[in-house]
Amino acid sequence: MSRVALSLFLSLVPLSLFAAGHDVSAVRSIPVESFDASLSIDASIAYNGNHFLTAWPMAWNIYTSRTDPTDGASSAAYPAVPLSLSSVEQLTPAGSGFVALCRKLEESPALCTFDSEGVLEHRVQLRTGRSYRPRMAFNGTNLLVVDLGISASMYDLTGRLVRRVTLPVEVSDSYAVTTAGTDFIVVTAGKTGINEFRLSADGTIKGTIPVQLPVVPELHDSNLYFYRIAVAAKEGRIGMVWDQLQPATTASAVIQPDGSVTRSKLPEGDLPPAGSAITLLPTDSGFFAAWNASSADRTGLFALRLDDSGAPRESRPVDLGNALFSSAASTGKTIALTRYLPSFRPTSTLLVDVDADGIRPRTPKPLPTLPIRQRFATVAGNGAGFTAAWVDWVSDSQNAVSGRVTAQGEALDGPGIILGQKATAPAIAHGSSGQLMVWRADGKLVAARITPFGTTLDAPPITIAPLSFPGSATYSVTWNGIRFYVVWGDGPKLFGAFVRPDGIAEPPRPLPVQFPPRTGGADPDVAWDGRQFIVVYGEDFLADACYENCFYYPEKERVLRVSADGIGLDLNPLVIPGRHHRAHIASSGTESLIALDGDTDTTAVVVLDDGAHFHVSPEIPLFHWFLNGDFASDVVWTGSEYVVAWRYSVLMERAGWIGASAISKSGVPSGSLVTPTAGPVEGASQSVPSVAANDAGETAIVISEMAPPNYVTRARLYRVSELVPKPAPPPPPRNVTTIQAGIATVITWQSDGQDGFLFEESADSGRNWSPAISTVGQSVTRVRESYYRFRVRAIGAGGLSEPVLATPGRVERRRAQRH
Q: pLDDT tens-digit profile of 63-85?
């Protein structure tokens, strides 16, 4: 099967995800080690057939790559399990392919089977609790998974539980698993000493061999019981190697075919064992042992050859470099280890040749490069088409990037034009001779001009102003026909400054605000109405004068007029009634429209200024959703109408939708359009939609989403002309029932294939309802008191169904049949 086969995508993602949408650029690639330092992940490796397969989780996906043991060449990284939020546990050979546990956050593990090329074939959720430190092996028919507990669960490759066995050992023990013929071998190390358990193919414990007696310390020091242990089988011999944290030692043992045990103390290296990973692998000339080591100054990876009795063949361990490993596999002649830095990011695959002559490490080969994530995408019209801007997000340098897109959605600038480094979310506006892009970098607010040809005129970028609170400063920019006007919030103050077409930034001017902007950033937006600038910004109100433990009334939006010369005109800016989290503004030249995001609604208000009165209209309802964190909006004037765009979704790992409403100058909506997105977003704050219109009135929406084929966050453009009329809300669920089972409540319902369901609960018997969870199944279990009331809504592209109140149910009891 081809590694780019579409069957994988079709098997994992609903067909509704095939939507309109266009990449605004190609993507740059970087080594895996350059990804965010916050990503602490492990890679797992196994050998089967004629190559190694490495699997590792990163940026919401599980990637796989094949490595040829002959020349060390690796294939391109392939998103084998996209949109998974998973870790991958101990990749293991199985048949002609591989099997692993894919452990999703907060869920029980899934059994993932891959073909020989690393393409996912099946992913089955196991009916068990969340796994922790699973170790496993495959005997040709079934998979044995040993988990913290210590229980041994046997599954076939369909995920069916065959048998579960409890081993008589301590919960804190270290353990490892292998096979000998069709038998499973489990070794444990801890308070009970070191023991080998042999399980038959059906899971029956056939026998136990004590390898080392328990430690009996004079002082109760738990470190004396802390081991890491590994096991391997070869020609009837069961080999094992372990390290002990205190005293810092490594040792080995081999159980011979006759049941006798030979033990060996292994020589010490330059560093004590780190207690993080240890492995034992069979080779053509014996066994290969490797372990992590560390001191206050450095880390290290050490290895030894062992003979068939477990005795070391080297007088000193071989130093394999200043790195660590998380997984290892063997061809019999060549060992592969996944190397990573102390930051816990995998960096390379180390191949080591092992034979009767010794251990010969090769030069480590980097893991395949991965596409850079494109976060915080935004867009402006540029005459005939559009200019998108985003941040190429890497660990050490976040690049501000722009790229032109035609009106038909064709990217013109390859991977985009880099405008600056260490950038935050950009803001962009279109002027008479190009665009101005604004962002934060190095504690300053900076900008760069973009020509109609996609190049920049400003390297280094223009400095607009230093920032007193650079971590929370927010900003926006617009064009008034003569020059660009930038407005930003910096701590408790608002500022504005002009940037001329020649690239000169004029001195900033503070804007009059009676109350401090929102503590997390004012999130200002600005528009030019033909006479003046209209600024909308967020604010937190103090309850009263206070000096500590102050209470803030959350999320008010204010509207401030600023003259054409940048002078604030309102000493007490207008308050928009109600509670809102975000606001965006656009103007036709005679009035303005503000799009508002509330707790569960996207609405709009018209801003009117006739010279005598400055006020906003009543709110215009546009779209109702269930959770503020999963939707956001923006607004643009197209030359004939306003378009308010928003994004909404069900679950964070699933794709959602983009919606758009056309609104007249007087504030009358004329209908809504939607399209499914190509993938979910990595974070709601990193993918707020941006909408823009070009000179022809064509409108486009840009978001950052995890789209195929690489499933890494990238900027995507949706033409509003490609959207379809928003459907009606889905029909409500049927037969919603609650059954009390001890302290848990099981809620079930029936429905006809909706995209998801909103489960709501009420602690006061129905007077107040709060969303508890969104789900794609048709049942959910909650631990709640019996007096809670529950109801369920269906979710779809058209919004939410009417709620259906759950009725009490009962468990049907059946009499046993008589024979």
A: 999 999 999 999 999 999 988 87
The residue to which tokens 């038998």 are assigned: 183
- Give residue-wise pLDDT tens across range 214-266: 866 554 555 556 789 999 999 999 999 998 877 778 999 999 999 999 999 99
Please tell me the distance from the alpha carbon of residue 759 to that of residue 793, in angstroms, as a whole number.
Answer: 7
Q: What share of the chain is helix, strand, coil (3-state, %, to 5)?
A: 5, 55, 45
First-to-final CA distance of the chain: 52
Residues with Cβ within 8 Å of 439's Cβ and at least 6 positions away in sequence, in order, are 391, 400, 420, 423, 424, 425, 426, 427, 445, 446, 447
CA distances from residue 281 to 290, 435, 641 in whole angstroms, order as listed: 9, 60, 69
Contact of 85 with 73, CB cutoff 8 Å: no
Nearest partner of 760 among 804, 729, 808, 807, judged by Cα: 804
**For 223, phi and psi rounded to 5 degrees?**
-65, -25
- Is residue 67 classed exposed, middle or buried when 0-12, 13-18 and 19+ CB atoms within 10 A define those classes? buried
- Work out the percent of the chain whose per-residue pLDDT is above 90: 59
**Phi and psi angles of residue 15, each rounded to the nearest 5 degrees, phi first:** -60, -25
CB-based contacts of 276-279 (< 8 A; 24+ apart in sequence):
276/228, 276/324, 277/228, 277/324, 277/325, 277/326, 277/327, 278/228, 278/229, 278/230, 278/241, 278/242, 278/243, 278/250, 279/230, 279/241, 279/325, 279/327, 279/328, 279/337
Say if residues 242 and 228 touch (Cβ distance below 8 Å): yes
Provide the token pair at 340: 């990573």
pLDDT band, residue 750 (cuts 50/70/90): very high
Confidence of residue 668 (pLDDT cuts 50, 70, 90): very high
Which residue shows structure tokens 């040749």? 353
The residue assigned the tokens 């617009």 is 478
Taking alpha carbons only, the member of 634, 653, 652 closest to residue 644 is 634
pLDDT at 109 over 90: no
Distance CA(528)–CA(534), nearest Å, equals: 6
Question: How much is the mean pLDDT over the chain?
Answer: 87
Tokens representing 680 are 């979910």
Query: Would the pLDDT of 1 be above 50?
Result: no
The torsion angles phi and psi of 455, rounded to 5 degrees, stand at -90, 165
Q: How far apart are CA 140 and CA 93, in angstroms?
A: 9
**pLDDT band at residue 784 under the 50/70/90 scheme:** confident
Q: In angstroms, rounded to a whole number, what is the distance separating the alpha carbons of residues 99 and 45? A: 11
Instruction: Band the pLDDT of 89: cuts 50, 70, 90.
Output: confident
Identity of residue 274: A
52 close to 46: Cβ distance less than 8 angstroms? yes
Sign of CA dihedral 311, 315, 317, 320: negative
d(CA 805, CA 797): 22
> To which residue do tokens 């099946």 refer?
122
Q: Please give the average per-residue pLDDT across 413-435, as a whole number.
A: 94
Given strand 642-648, what is the order of strands in its sheet? 631-637, 642-648, 657-663, 669-676, 724-725
Q: Quick one: tokens of 664? A: 């007249």
DSSP 531: S
Q: pLDDT band at 87, cuts 50/70/90?
A: confident
Sorted by sequence, the CB contacts under 8 Å of residue 381 that are 6+ apart come out as 387, 430, 692, 693, 694, 695
